[in-house]
Design a protein that fits this description.
Length: about 350
Amino acid sequence: MSTCLGFAAHEAHGALTPIRFERRALRADDVAIDIAYCGVCHSDAHQVHNDWNNTVYPCVPGHEIVGHVTAVGSSVSRFRIGDRVAVGCLVDSCQQCTPCAEHQEQLCSHGPTPTYNGKDRVSGENTLGGYSDHIVVREAFVLRLPERLDPRFAAPLLCAGITVWNPMRRYGVGKGSKVAVVGLGGLGHMAVKLAVALGAEVTVITTSPGKADDARALGANHVLLSNDQQAMLAATNAFEFILDTIPSRHNVNPYLMLLGRDGVMVLVGAIEPLEPIHGGLLMRNNRTLAGSIIGGVQPTQELLDFCAEHQVLPSCEMIGIQDINTAFSRLQTSDVKYRFVIDMTTLRYVTLE
């Protein structure tokens, strides 16, 4: 076993504070990773605050992890000490069911093991995440970080990036696709960048005129104000694919009207009941309303490789671990463009009281 320093919440809505805890000794198929950077996901705040009523304390968040290998188990063949690596939202799954066999470990029939606030499949212990100086992960869930990908900005690709990449690839977004992205936050800004890199014609849909310049700076071709009834009416049937990144309960009917024949709208933000959906809007034009959650190991590696090749990087604000509670507060008011990333080397300056 190894002693680890991290930041943890000990109760709902309590501040994150320094903690020492034990990481497991390496199993044969394990990789030990020193963490250089860890992204801050909005779901980290939800989990810490027990918004989903399933948080086990102490809770060490963090599932957007970038670092390098410091040790490997006896059966590890894909990684060596010193390799640049990454870990996303999952650290294990059954590896035997149909979803796992099809590289959709996030849909594991027996339930995947999340990077934090999950149950280790061997020991049953609670998993603890990347707001820490190192982590031990099963080899099958460790990703290779391409040399051309700047590690300072790569971390958000492991959750925000794969969350929007997975449905875009599933539904064939590519050159000439007419795509709309609803919302311009952490997920939305990555969706715009990736859709543009795939060759799509991209429209950002927002309620805020002030986001128009930001949307175009990210590469969007057009901006549509959802509270402009005339503009929305003019865009009826205009899109093949709509990605809805709004993170809370909302009315999807106005967006469904924008889908053309056989168009698809995918929800990736709202993990809660929506307002009532008009069935006729789905029947007309054979529209589809779908959902998607993160992605498996192979698609995430594909994303990292694509981003390295095309130099697609999240827009990030770097913080020290000492500023994490302020960052959580700023998340609540969307005061970030567009993702926080923690420089985990700042843990060196943390002392336990």
